[in-house]
Design brief:
CATH architecture of the largest domain: 3-Layer(aba) Sandwich
Number of strands: 18
Shape: elongated
CATH class of the largest domain: Alpha Beta
Largest sheet: 8 strands, mixed
Helix content: 25-40%
Bound molecules: zinc ion
Low-confidence stretches: 1-28, 33-42
Strand order of the largest sheet: 1-2-4-3-5-10-8-9
């Protein structure tokens, strides 16, 4: 703490960094104490130049083979381990435990500095955007040892990365672990091997900074705008209604990140709900003294594999690491973060308007219906969530079925309930021009 950054080699070339140093005298990398903010905001041109250079670098750093959101954890490591083996003196990989089904949990260590930074991803198995970006980031760090920013990160920080913390969930592309436990609600009880491994790593390095990397529901909207949330940020509180030096530092880092990712995500950045969750890792780690930042990747229907957000994670996380190394985060005002629009309640995924519902033994009845998918971007695992006059309801996607019939698959109606389209019924069936469902216009769900 309090180490001088001035006088280190290679610093002068980064013009914006020099400005930051001039303004602050010296920069402390660790999250406390937090000095009063100063007005030395990163000049837009310099920020653009750094973002542009990282954007160019991304093309070379992006790893092939992780093109889809879903992958097997074994394939992930088969891609990543050979990258790290190119620089064994700089990158150490070690096993920190095994998942319930015996899959290895691994940490990657990089850097020889005093400020400890912990990043973990995919504790929810179907939230893989940051895991993919981590491979890109590591490829970049391996290949660019001589780059000024990489050298700075390496000399100032001791970084520990735990990617794909929930490999059993990742293998199935589901949120929970192999016994159905949400690892991010296990920070207190530590009933899961995955949760215990993360806690042990955090304690072993006494992490100054933590980056908790997730994907959030694609349905979430940006404030009252109705627009997609591309990234949501949170500095989780250390207790209900509380703050702390670590939490204050994390707020500034969230502000920094909102700016750093703007070249890719624009203003579609939200603030995540700040309610204290006494079972969640981000919240408890903050209470243990780590400055934790939650980064939630959202989603957009036009980018089903989230390549845009993967790139935003690459840019944001690398920039954040550099900000920790330089102390640059201290020059971001917490207000930037606190004034972000909030994540707002979900709308539905799909709204079918104006269809006549055909149920066996009944007259067709005019009804709109709404569908939510297990995976919004893949439009898979749909269930009926509302039926009737949904005039004032909205959804990510709407389909005008005026004059059409919706014929549910007999399979989903089931014999025991009779001809009843109950809430929760699988959204499987056809929209057709005839009540028999032969002249099909649109199919919902898998062909039965
Ligand atoms: Zn999550």
């Amino acid at each position: 703490m309090g180490r001088q950054l001035a006088g280190r080699g290679g610093l002068a070339a980064a013009g914006w960094l020099v400005l930051a140093l001039v303004a602050s005298g010296c920069a402390s990398s660790q999250p406390q104490p937090v000095p009063a903010p100063e007005a030395a905001e990163l000049p837009a041109a310099a920020a653009d130049a750094r973002a542009a250079s990282l954007a160019t670098a991304y093309a070379a750093a992006r790893s092939d083979g992780l093109d889809r959101r879903q992958f097997q954890p074994e394939d992930y490591w088969a891609l990543l381990l050979p990258v790290l083996e190119q620089a064994p003196d700089r990158f150490q990989v070690s096993e920190i435990g095994r998942s319930i089904e015996g899959r290895p949990l691994r940490r990657i260590d990089f850097g020889r500095g005093d400020t400890t930074v912990l990043l973990w991803s995919q504790m929810h198995g179907n939230e893989s955007t940051a895991s993919r970006a981590i491979v890109d980031i590591l490829r970049y760090l391996v290949a660019n040892a001589d780059d000024e920013m990489v050298a700075r990160i390496e000399s100032e920080l001791a970084i520990t990365i735990v990617p794909v913390l929930n490999p059993d969930g990742a293998a199935r592309f589901v949120r929970h672990n192999a016994v159905g436990i949400d690892i991010n609600r296990d920070a207190k009880r530590l009933a899961t091997p995955e949760g215990r491994a993360l806690k042990a790593v955090r304690d072993s390095i006494d992490a100054d900074w933590g980056f908790n990397l997730h994907d959030q529901n694609v349905r979430t909207r940006l404030g009252s705008s109705g627009r997609d949330v591309r990234i949501a940020l949170l500095a989780p509180p250390p207790g209900s209604g509380k703050t702390s030096p670590a939490n204050q530092a994390a707020r500034r880092m969230c502000s920094f990140l909102a700016d750093a990712m703007a070249p890719i995500v624009g203003d579609q950045v939200a603030r995540y709900d700040e309610s204290f969750n006494p079972r969640a890792f981000g919240d408890l780690m903050t209470s243990w003294g780590t400055a934790v930042v939650l980064i939630e990747s959202g989603g957009e229907l036009d980018d089903p594999d989230k390549e845009r957000l993967r790139r935003a994670n690459f840019l944001g996380i690398l920039s954040a690491l550099d900000a920790v190394a330089t102390g640059r985060w201290q020059h971001s005002s917490p207000e930037r973060y606190l004034n972000l629009p909030l994540n707002s309640p979900w709308v539905y995924d799909l709204l079918v308007r104006g269809a006549s519902i055909v149920l066996p033994g009944r007259e067709p009845v005019l009804a709109d219906f709404a569908v939510n998918f297990d995976d919004t971007l893949a439009a898979s695992g749909g269930a009926i969530v509302e039926v009737g006059d949904l005039e004032v309801t909205s959804a990510l996607e709407e389909f005008d079925a005026t004059g059409l019939y919706f014929v549910p698959s007999p399979r989903v109606l089931g014999p025991e309930l009779g001809p009843y389209l109950r809430i929760g019924t699988d959204a499987v069936g056809v929209l057709a021009r005839d009540p028999e469902g032969t002249d099909i216009v649109k199919r919902l769900g898998p062909e039965s």
